[in-house]
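B., you asked whether I could sanity-check this one before it goes into the benchmark set. Here's the sequence:
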Amino acid sequence: MGGNNTLVEQAIAGFARMPFDKDELYKRYGSEISMEAAKGAGAVGAREALKAVSDSAGLRFDLYSVGKEVKTSSGIVSVEQNAAADSASAKGAAFEDRLYSYMRSAGYNIIRIKVPDSASAKLNFLMLNENSGMQNVLLADVGENSSLGLFEWLGSAQDAVSTHAAINIVNAGAGSSVELSILHNESDSCDVGALNSITASDNATVKASTIYNGGRNTKSSTLASAEGQGSSISVNEIVLGNGSQSFDLGAYTLNSGTRTSTKLRSGAVLNDRALCTLKGYAKVASGAEGAYSYVEERGLVMGSGARMRPLPDMSIDCRNVAFASHSASAAPIDAEKLFYLMSRGIDEARAKRTFVAGFLSKYLANIANDTVKEIAISVLLDKLDNGRHATVPRISPQNLWIAPGAE
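And here's what the prediction gave me:
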């Protein structure tokens, strides 16, 4: 237990390199979530959702967590419970400190994945809270020349007032390959706090995709460090917001090894009064010769009250880089293109759906696992069509045309 807690503390300390809760510019456009213990008692629907997800998605889950209960059927996965401990109030502290302070005071599960050298693993996790908070810390150590495919579905009971706190720590060994896909599908009465820490050793490749679909208020921080020579990390963020949902996403990519590559692509579709702030910051450290660094933030704003705030930035401390660029844009659907589709006999609602699907396809295509892609598309289109989230729609392969292949 002590060793695992040390790893968690080290990961939390790593977020000190991120400016999002310290720099005044980012703080001005940031949002706050209380991350207090959950209050209220909505109808408990997580166990029903467990069956619905399993039946509809057709997946065998290697781990499921419902409230405080965690069970796993995989030999490379272990679970430990960290009991609640006295914790001083974290009011006014930086987000990562406040989140971890909340987890320490409420207690959390440590889920440990250890993939041996020259081994391969493919895991599906389902984590659902009920009418209380749920806190999980996932530690994934991937051995040298190994591969890991990990899919996490995070959800909650539809009308339960709750919090969902999640920390993912991934260490990719030399020559390894990792694909991490996370689907947030919590209810609109759930506050979501998420920290993701990714470290890549020599010649390791990591692809991390997060779909932010659920939650009332979501605040996340991602730290992606390409430390080893020739390592590569691709971070892919997808947001679909409606109602008064709020998303505050910060991602920090760091090239510190030679010939490393980091890519951050973020895309948001916003309806109604949804708000999304994208804070992508890329740093190329001194001595990271031959580095490739790219940040892209795009928004499709469909609601008259929706707001998109892209804030890309970049710091280059090395003179000899292969490529470094960042860009951002936010706009409504092109009126002329929409008129063109409607003039061909397509009604307005379906024409807009076509545009949204095309926008999302660029980001969904970066998910290599077709099953995960199929689930993500089905969940997003169900929300787009019906204005709801935290539900489990019929998972259908008919929409796979939207995202035909990975990058």
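One thing to flag: Residues 87-92 have pLDDT under 50 and may be disordered. Otherwise nothing jumped out at me.
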